[in-house]
């Protein structure tokens, strides 16, 4: 995770993260929340095209995408991501992810997500 990712995660500017790291001699690894699970969205042109969950690096990784169009758009930098929430337990993150996918599918979005079980 980069300092820019940390800034997005904490919803502050990149410069603020650098300032705090230097001022308080912080270890950036401790800011990265490596023990939490996130739910994130991928956006293109104001529309959610994918909802996912996992550890912090998942939202930016494109090499493991199954959909070739999604993978290509990410490689070209055309996808922006937003971290929606974070959880201590993977199960809670997955439940939230499924609910978001259902919501966006009803709106005709999340086209890169597979159909989810509607339980």
Distinctive features:
3 strands, globular, 5 helices, 20% strand, 119 residues, three-stranded antiparallel beta sheet, alpha+beta
Structural notes for this entry:
The chain is of the alpha+beta class. The chain is 39% helix and 20% strand. Helix 1 crosses helix 2. The longest helix has 17 residues. It is globular, with a radius of gyration of 15 Å. The N and C termini lie far apart (34 Å). The mean pLDDT is 86.
Beta-strand residue fraction = 15-25%
Extended strand count: 3
Order of helices and strands: HHHEEHEH
Could you report the average pLDDT, rounded to the nearest whole number?
Answer: 86
Query: What is the overall shape?
Result: globular
Walk across the major sheet and give the strand order.
2-1-3
Outline the secondary-structure elements.
Blueprint: H1 3-10, H2 14-23, H3 28-31, E1 37-44, E2 47-54, H4 68-75, E3 80-87, H5 90-106
Antiparallel strand pairs: 1-2, 1-3
In short:
With 119 residues, the chain is α+β, with helices and mostly antiparallel strands. It contains 5 helices and 3 strands; from the N terminus they run αααββαβα. The relative contact order is 0.17.
């Amino acid at each position: 995770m980069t300092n820019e990712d940390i800034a997005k995660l904490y919803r502050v500017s990149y410069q603020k993260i650098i300032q705090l790291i230097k001022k308080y001699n912080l270890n950036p690894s401790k800011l990265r929340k490596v023990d939490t699970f996130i739910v994130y969205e991928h956006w293109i042109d104001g529309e959610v095209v994918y909802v996912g969950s996992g550890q912090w690096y998942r939202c930016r990784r494109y090499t493991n995408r199954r959909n070739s169009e999604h993978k290509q758009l990410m490689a070209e930098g055309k996808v922006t991501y937003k971290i929606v929430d974070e959880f201590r337990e993977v199960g809670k993150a997955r439940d939230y992810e499924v609910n978001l996918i259902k919501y966006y599918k009803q709106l005709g979005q999340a086209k890169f997500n597979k159909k989810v079980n509607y339980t």
